[in-house]
Design a protein that fits this description.
Helices cover about 35% and strands about 25% of the residues. It is an alpha/beta fold. Helix 6 links the parallel strand 8 and strand 9 (about 190-200). It is globular.
C-alpha cells in the first residue's frame, strides 16, 4: 500500500485486503479489482450540468485525448495545441516535486499522468479521477506506470503533506466546488511543494461575452485571474504565476512553508 494513501472518510491508515484496501480505523472497504483503487464504491456520476456530466461518458473517454481535447484547446486558445510546450511548462512548475510523489487530479484517460511517470522525475505518480469511464480507459492504457485511484477532489485519499506536487490539467472548471478542492490540494501538498493546473479564464470584449454564454450552456466555470490567485492564496498556495493563451490559462503556485531538508 503506497504510504501516501489514507481513508478519505476518516483519514485513517489503510491495509491491503486482497486487491483492494481496508481502513484500520473505520473498517471501510475499498475495492481494487478494476485496475484502480476505488474510494467511491457504489457512487456513479457526479456534478450537475452538461460539462461535468460529459466527463463520465464512455464515448468521450475513448476520443478525449485524440479529438476532444485538441478541439477545445484550439477553440479556446485561437491556435493549435502544443502539447510538448505545455508538458515542459508543467514539468518546470513541478521542479520542486522531483524525487517525491505527485498526483494528477482529474487524470481522465491518463495521458499527462503517464508522461509524468515516464519522465522518471518522480518517485510515484497517482492518477485520480471520479469518472468510471475515464478510469477504465486510463487502466487499459496504463502499463503499470501510475497508481490509479478513484476519488473526490473535495476529499482526497492522501495523508496531510504527503505529496510533493499536484497537477490538474483542463479540469478545474468542471469541479463542483473549486475552493474546497484547492483546500484539499493545500492539505495534501507538503510545504514547499507545487500545484500546477490549467483551466479557462476570462478575456475581454466580445470574446468575454462568448465565454460567459458558453460557460452557462455547458455549466462550467470560467475564472478571473485575480479570483484564481486569491483562491490559492487563501489556502496557503503562494507565489502564483501563470501563462495565457486566449481563454486558456496555465497557473502554478507553491505551498507556503519551507521544504523539508
Amino acid at each position: 500500500m503506497p504510504s501516501e494513501l489514507c481513508c478519505p472518510a476518516c483519514r485513517g491508515p489503510l491495509a491491503v485486503e486482497g486487491v483492494g484496501a481496508a481502513c484500520r480505523a473505520c473498517d471501510r472497504r475499498y475495492p481494487g479489482d478494476r485496475g484502480y483503487l476505488d474510494f467511491l464504491p457504489g457512487l456513479g456520476a457526479a456534478g450537475e450540468g452538461l460539462g461535468p456530466r460529459l466527463m463520465h461518458s464512455r464515448a468521450l473517454a475513448r476520443v478525449y485525448e485524440r479529438l476532444w481535447r485538441p478541439f477545445f484547446v484550439t477553440v479556446a486558445s485561437n491556435g493549435l495545441p502544443d502539447y510538448r510546450a505545455e508538458f515542459e511548462a508543467v514539468l518546470a512548475a513541478l521542479a520542486s516535486a522531483e524525487g517525491g510523489a505527485v498526483a494528477d487530479l482529474s487524470c481522465g484517460p491518463g495521458f499527462t499522468g503517464r508522461k509524468l511517470a515516464e519522465s522518471g522525475r518522480f518517485a510515484r505518480v497517482f492518477g485520480v479521477d471520479w469518472s468510471l469511464a475515464m478510469l477504465a480507459r486510463a487502466a487499459a492504457d496504463n502499463r503499470g506506470l501510475m497508481r490509479l485511484v478513484r476519488g473526490d477532489v473535495g476529499r482526497l485519499p492522501f495523508k496531510t503533506a504527503s505529496l510533493a506536487g499536484v497537477h490538474a490539467g483542463a479540469a478545474f472548471h468542471v469541479w463542483p466546488d473549486p475552493p474546497a478542492a484547492v483546500a484539499e490540494v493545500a492539505r495534501v501538498v507538503r510545504p514547499g511543494g507545487a500545484f500546477v493546473a490549467s483551466t479557462f479564464a476570462h478575456t475581454s470584449g466580445l470574446r468575454r461575452q462568448l465565454e460567459t454564454v458558453v460557460s452557462r450552456v455547458g455549466q462550467f466555470h470560467v475564472f478571473e485571474v485575480d479570483q484564481l490567485r486569491g483562491m490559492l492564496s487563501a489556502h496557503g498556495l503562494v507565489d502564483f504565476d501563470c501563462e495565457r493563451r486566449g481563454s486558456l490559462i496555465l497557473f502554478w503556485a507553491r505551498r507556503a512553508g519551507a521544504a523539508a531538508a
